[in-house]
Request: fold
Amino acid sequence: MKVYFRMHGYLKPVSAQLYEKLQTVLYDMDCDLDAEELHFHHEGDFLDEDEVMAALLEILPSKMTGIIDCIDMQGWQMKRYFFSGGEWKAEKIHLNAVMDKKNYEQSG
Reply:
């Protein structure tokens, strides 16, 4: 299967009760709840990231923190969302910048 889109990230703290609510949004993702930190991953067809982010915003308490990366493999773009204080902040990152940094770190 060709991968067109990836979404992965973490959120914390996540209680068992909150985890159940999050499953309504993250139902088609691989999820792992360890202690109170939820890691999740999707790889495959495109997801409507705006819809996912809006749905998460309705569920997440303001004390929560987390990072979510949405990677468009065809457009070679990544958007990183930071959640803190009850809101998302996003920054676009060109994947060449990420790969250049990774290659530099591995060679040194």
Remarks:
- The mean pLDDT is 87.
- The domain at 5-107 is CATH 3.30.70.240 (Alpha-Beta Plaits).
